[in-house]
From TrEMBL:
<dbReference type="InterPro" id="IPR016181">
    <property type="entry name" value="Acyl_CoA_acyltransferase"/>
</dbReference>
<dbReference type="InterPro" id="IPR000182">
    <property type="entry name" value="GNAT_dom"/>
</dbReference>
<keyword id="KW-0012">Acyltransferase</keyword>
<dbReference type="GO" id="GO:0016746">
    <property type="term" value="F:acyltransferase activity"/>
</dbReference>
<feature type="domain" description="N-acetyltransferase">
    <location>
        <begin position="2"/>
        <end position="159"/>
    </location>
</feature>
<protein>
    <submittedName>
        <fullName>GNAT family N-acetyltransferase</fullName>
        <ecNumber>2.3.-.-</ecNumber>
    </submittedName>
</protein>
<dbReference type="Pfam" id="PF00583">
    <property type="entry name" value="Acetyltransf_1"/>
</dbReference>
<keyword id="KW-0808">Transferase</keyword>
<dbReference type="InterPro" id="IPR051016">
    <property type="entry name" value="Diverse_Substrate_AcTransf"/>
</dbReference>
């Protein structure tokens, strides 16, 4: 029914559409400032910073899901795989593609000798939380996410 494979440059337009679908689901479509050309450079340029898998419907070859990851380094734990985005298009949810994608990323984590895998889930996304709980996932509530946008950093450094 589904085929999971490593993503290719020519998949990026379909993957980008899935990212936009995810942003809409997460009630933040205006926060997507990434572009297809940025993804091409960042994923397939001279210094790739992310990798991804896609889920295809076997009968049509249509990409219906993606899992985008990169590596981070924890001074406490060592090399970790970070699952940045993980989405299956709404009509295909609940049919097994998400499980196959997620388990492919778990395999990648072990293949690359990572000490573990990390990701985030919104506290209101009950279907995702239930899915992750099936894997015995530890969910923390004591850490606060922090970030600055490049425009904010430029302004701060001008001072």
């Amino acid at each position: 029914m589904y085929k999971i494979r490593a993503g290719k440059k020519e998949d990026l337009s379909e993957v980008f559409a899935l990212i936009q679908e995810l942003a809409l689901y997460e009630r933040a479509p205006e926060q997507v400032t990434n572009t297809l050309s940025m993804m091409e450079e960042d994923g397939f340029g001279p210094n790739p910073v992310f990798g991804f898998f896609v889920a295809e419907k076997e009968e049509t070859g249509t990409i219906i899901g993606t899992a985008i990851y990169y590596y981070r380094y924890s001074t406490w734990k060592g090399k970790r795989l970070y699952l940045e985005d993980y989405v299956v298009t709404e009509p295909e949810r609940g049919n097994g593609a998400g499980k196959l994608l997620f388990e492919k990323v778990l395999e990648k984590c072990l293949e690359d000798n990572c000490t573990g895998m990390m990701w985030q889930v919104l506290d209101w996304n009950e279907p995702a939380i239930r899915f992750y709980e099936k894997y015995g996932t530890s969910m923390e509530d004591e850490w606060i996410n922090c970030h600055l946008q490049s425009e904010e950093i430029r302004e701060l450094l001008k001072k």
